[in-house]
Amino acid sequence: MKNDSSTPVIKLPTIGLNIDVSNLDEIIEKMEKINLLSSKITNVVPIDDYLLKQSEVAVILGINVVTVGKLIKRGYLKGLKLGSLKIRKKELDRFMIDVEKNKVSFEDIYS
Q1: I want to staple 68 with a disulfide (CB 3.0 to 4.6 A). Which of 11, 15, 54, 82 is the partner?
Q2: pLDDT score, position 32
Q3: 22 near 60, Cβ under 8 Å?
Q4: Residues in domain Helix-turn-helix (predicted)?
Q5: What is the spatial distance between Cα 39 and Cα 64, in angstroms, rounded to a whole number?
Q6: DSSP the chain
């Protein structure tokens, strides 16, 4: 994958992937492939069932943790209170699709 210094990239060294977060379709496609691979390995939780910390969601979305908290508080993301707030990976996928379809405006969130 090509990467210049202005393109945000998430590195997943454990599975050998670099994901360009500027292309949501590519992210979803790669996550689906990861999910298929994980289901073939025994004793592994499918990736859709992963719980992400707010800080992990912030990194994935390229925003800060406070904004993730606002997304949860305003109902854009559903959080689970398990010690600290966690977000299911499939909930994050749903949110990113809503953003892509312009159902969510970050201008509303930041106001």
Answers
A1: 54
A2: 80
A3: no
A4: 51-96
A5: 31
A6: ----TTS-EEEETTTTEEEETT-HHHHHHHHHHHHHHHHHSTT---GGG-EEEHHHHHHHHTS-HHHHHHHHHTTSS--EEESEEEEEHHHHHHHHHHHHTTSS-HHHHH-
- Yes or no: say if 35 and 48 are a contact pair by the CB < 8 Å rule: yes
The dihedral sign for the CA sequence 102, 103, 104, 105: positive
Q: Are 10 and 30 in contact (CB under 8 A)?
A: no
From residue 69, give the alpha-carbon distance in Å to each of 38, 44, 72, 73, 104.
29, 29, 5, 6, 15
d(CA 65, CA 111): 16
Rounded Cα distance between 102 and 48, Å, is: 23
pLDDT, residue 20, reads 60
Q: At what angle do helices 24-40 and 89-100 cross, to 10 degrees?
A: 160
Q: Which of 46, 49, 51, 92 is nearest to 71 (CA)?
A: 92
